[in-house]
Specification:
Helices cover 36% and strands 22% of the residues. It is of the alpha/beta class. It binds flavin-adenine dinucleotide.
């Protein structure tokens, strides 16, 4: 079998890339080591992810993807695909849970983002791939050889392709050397899926919350780490402790539940539906992201940390940048692939500072609430630019002034000789050019309604 494009890995990234390739007139093949439905992590969507997905649906005439961009439309169109509502980003500080930050990311409970129940979402997308007549092979552990193009083979399977996309989410089938020495974020995760987790709002909801506080990516923030809690409509909750490897090298699920009584209360009746997964340090970064005839999706090339749910948006924006390059003549294509690599590295560098800076503020919630606004100003500014039809970059990373601003504040936040309140006071002024919605406004008291 001869194909224009072989895509390795059928998470949402690989399947969407395959659907686009077909619409571009290519002959793609999608190859999966496992099979669907299967568990996958990476569930909380964001406005940036939804905008990218809507743009992909529109640009490549893939209307069946459009309903996945809005929770209400998703439920109406595909009621059999499990998901959950995500109105915004909720941060609760422990042990003093009166310290809260809520940032609405959507106007209402219909036009909002979703928690993707990945077993269903990814299986749906693979079905779309099959329906589109794209060659799809699962349970294939493929061997890759480059000889005048790519030769892919396994026991009962072989095919050739001119170009290869690694969409394996980090399995690294090309064997590209990895190097995380330049990454500052240093965290590990203890996670699972649960039944019986009490929605936070039932325990600690407040009238001033701009949306039901648990219809969100709920972040419990504490010294040396944080926990994400994401609810699906089927009664399953995805939750995980994400821990600074230096500050909390030995904590377990049990020790954290003993230490954090309000989280313990929320999980009092919880039962995990699969064994707890305990990772070592989760950061990874490939030293190369693209060559003349291959490329990795951002999620295959690197992973930082789930804080602020940036992963899926990054993957989708990478797909938006990568796929048009594949229709260019070889010489231009090679140059554009180098650019794709440089841009992806640059985005990771920015994200690393935005995330690691937050880790440095976990003990001081006032400072955390200010520093997190660097992420929100970049994300919100980009979303608005895109909605206005302007070409812009992931998290505003193409804006040099924005990146310099982040770099400057990050350098201050990691400098132990600088007083926290002097940093916090400067953030409102620093983000002003990109702050279109009143972030850091003290009168809002950390309750940001959708603007
Ligand atoms: C703990 C944790 C929490 C996260 N939370 C969030 C979040 O809330 N929001 C968010 O946006 N992002 C989150 N992420 C990031 C998110 O997981 C990724 O961005 C996302 O899964 C990428 O999707 P993908 O389709 O590229 O890869 P994956 O979902 O990893 O899919 C890769 C596929 O490739 C297959 N595969 C692997 N090796 C091979 C091989 N050799 N041959 C063929 N197939 C292969 C696998 O079986 C799998 O089906 C989180 C990550 C972690 C670790």
């Amino acid at each position: 079998m001869q194909h224009d494009l072989a895509i390795i890995g059928s998470g949402f990234g690989g399947s969407i890339a395959a659907l686009i390739a077909k619409q571009m007139g290519m002959k793609p093949v999608l190859i999966e080591k496992g099979s669907h439905p299967r568990f996958a992590i990476g569930e909380s969507s964001t406005p940036q992810a939804s905008i990218s997905l809507a743009n992909i649906a529109d640009t490549y005439n893939l209307p069946r993807l459009e309903p996945l961009t809005r929770y209400g439309l998703w439920k109406e169109t595909y009621p059999e695909l499990n998901c959950g509502p995500k109105r915004g980003f909720t941060y609760i500080h422990h042990p003093n849970i009166e310290h809260e930050l809520l940032v609405a990311a959507s106007p209402d409970g219909y036009d909002c983002d979703s928690q993707w129940y990945r077993a269903d979402t990814d299986a749906f997308l693979v079905d779309e791939v099959k329906q589109a007549g794209i060659d799809y092979f699962d349970n294939v552990d493929v061997k890759l050889e480059e000889r005048e193009g790519w030769h892919l083979s396994s026991e009962n399977f072989s095919c050739s392709a001119n170009f290869l996309i690694d969409a394996t989410g980090g399995a690294n089938p090309l064997g590209i050397p990895q190097d995380i020495s330049m990454l500052q974020t240093n965290s590990r995760v203890i996670y699972s899926h649960f039944e019986g987790v009490t929605p936070w709002g039932e325990l600690h909801g407040k009238p001033q919350h701009p949306y039901p506080c648990h219809d969100a990516a709920l972040h419990h923030v504490f010294s040396g780490g944080w926990m994400y809690v994401l609810h699906f409509d089927n009664g399953i909750t995805s939750a995980g402790f994400v821990l600074d490897c230096n500050a909390r090298p030995n904590d377990t699920w049990e020790t954290l539940m003993d230490e954090l009584p309000y989280i313990n209360e929320q999980f009092k009746n919880a039962k995990s539906t699969m064994p707890l997964v305990t990772t070592s340090r989760v950061q990874r970064r490939s030293t190369e992201i693209a060559g003349d005839n291959w490329a990795m999706l951002p999620s295959a090339a690197a992973f930082l940390d789930p804080l602020h749910s940036a992963g899926n948006a990054h993957t989708l924006s990478g797909i938006e940048r990568l796929m048009p390059i594949l229709s260019e003549p070889p010489k231009q294509r090679a140059n554009l692939l180098r650019q794709y690599e440089r841009t992806t590295f640059h985005e990771l560098e920015l994200l690393d500072k935005l995330i690691h800076g937050c880790y440095k503020c976990f003990e001081d919630f006032d400072l955390f609430s200010q520093f997190a606004m660097l992420y929100f100003s970049g994300a919100d500014f980009t979303e608005r630019q895109r909605r206005a039809g302007k070409n812009t970059s992931f998290l505003n990373s193409g804006d040099t002034a924005f990146c310099e601003m982040v770099e400057g504040l990050y350098a201050r936040v990691i400098d132990p000789t600088i007083l926290a309140n002097t940093i916090g006071m400067g953030i409102r002024g620093a983000i002003e050019p990109w702050n279109l919605v009143g972030l850091c406004d003290p009168t809002k008291q950390n309750m940001y309604d959708y603007a």
